[in-house]
# Entry
Amino acid sequence: MSIKPLKIGNLTVEKPIIQGGMGVGISLGGLAGAVAKEGGVGIISSAQIGFLEPDFDRDPVAANLRAIKKEYDRARKIAPHGVIGFNIMVALKHYEDYVQAAAQAGADLIISGAGLPTELPKLTEGTKTALALIVSTARSAGVILKFWDRKYHRVPDLVVIEGPKAGGHLGFTREQLTSYLGDGTEDYDEEIREIIAVVREYGKRYQRQIPVALAGGIENREQVRHAFLLGADAVQVATRFVTTLECDADSRYKEAYLRAKEEDIVIVKSPVGMPGRAILNDFMKRVNAGEKIPHSPCHGCLKHCNPAEIPYCITDSLIHAAKGEVEDGLLFCGAYAYKAEKIETVKEVMDSLLS
# Structure
């Protein structure tokens, strides 16, 4: 397997591995800095990033904005010359504020999904921050690329294809997930080829190479090799980095991954109706049984969320998980989380994927 440096706009990344953003509190400055130090792209998740700030309950937006700068500086101290960015979901309330804060902090890259980032170029205008899109279908890729082309006369610096085996919220319906998660991967491989073709078409229009990273279920070197054979320029990996020494999650969160069996990895329903993938624990069993979980006053995380109607609060559940209260929390994970057997270092994970 021939490994080439990854070019993202004016950035050069030694190893074509992007660490996926994991919120709340799983991929902060510690993990992102460690990945960047080893030659990959380290990504900090902005989702409720300020949950440990003393004023988070009173003013979550101010806490999050402060933590964006704090975690970026922490990662930069670990990797002074590495590539460090943020994952910022379009679905977040105050999305615009978080994007601008990340760019002003000095982020090399912003990766944006969970919706179509139609305003991302405008929000980062005048900065050196590279911009990346997350898409799951050729149709969504075509829509956002066409929009950027017409409105901003530009294309993204990177496109991430997030497949059906990813963790957290998924950009698929339950019916699509059933179709794509059969015995083989051929159906989604064809979708990947179509997405790459759409991206390459827009790259030709602008006479530039737009790199494509494949994400979702990238667990070993054979899957990395398969991604490259499909035409990807890089891979985005998240779950493998959870069980590393450098991951920002509580040790009990990592241990939950090590204990998980294949049958414990399930598709769950988010409070806002989106399917996601997580570890089946006591908390999710209560939710699946129809219990409505009491929650704290709204912390204003997602745009389309009515606190009076939700079965549980996703902020509360993810904070419980990040703090190690694993039986009371939502443990997002990728399809192969059950394969984790030991705590590794970031270097060991990256070497295992690329050697």
Q: What stands out?
A: Residues 186-205 form the longest helix (20 residues). The first strand starts at residue 6 and ends at 8. DSSP finds 13 helices and 13 strands in the chain.
